[in-house]
Design goal:
Largest sheet: 4 strands, antiparallel
Radius of gyration: 17 Å
Strand content: 35-45%
Distance between the termini: 9 Å
Strand order of the largest sheet: 2-5-1-6
Low-confidence stretches: none
Helix content: 10-25%
Shape: elongated
Order of helices and strands: EHEEEEHE
Structural class: alpha+beta
Length: about 110
């Protein structure tokens, strides 16, 4: 199993969710986060004063998938989440040793 963590622009969430649902992904966790990468934020003007916005809003999606589904899921996120602009986000893929369903005690990738 693999843990896929994706950081995307907030307005792309519905498109990414729809793309993942279309390939039968049944569960994911979504969090609103703030951060910066190479774009280092931007400058905004508020009531005549200029200020630096260092941490930009992002959406973090976490999902655990079977090893054989990783490429399909990553491709779906890339296609639906891409705008072609700086700050589109990142995807990380990490190994998962085990998964256990709390309600029944079932373990392994059968719970996915």
């Amino acid at each position: 199993m693999k843990l896929i963590i994706a950081f995307i622009k907030p307005f792309k969430l519905d498109q990414v969710k729809d793309a993942l649902t279309a390939i039968n992904i049944r569960g994911m966790s979504v969090s609103e986060v703030r951060g910066f990468g190479r774009q280092r934020g931007h400058t905004e003007l508020f009531r005549g004063s200029e200020y630096q916005v260092d941490f930009l809003p992002k959406i973090r999606i976490d999902l655990v998938v079977r090893d054989e589904d990783v490429d399909t899921v990553v491709d779906a996120i890339l296609e639906a989440g891409r705008t072609g602009q700086v700050g589109d986000g990142k995807i990380f893929v990490l190994p998962v040793e085990d998964a256990i369903r709390i309600r029944t005690g079932e373990a392994g990738d059968d719970i996915l």
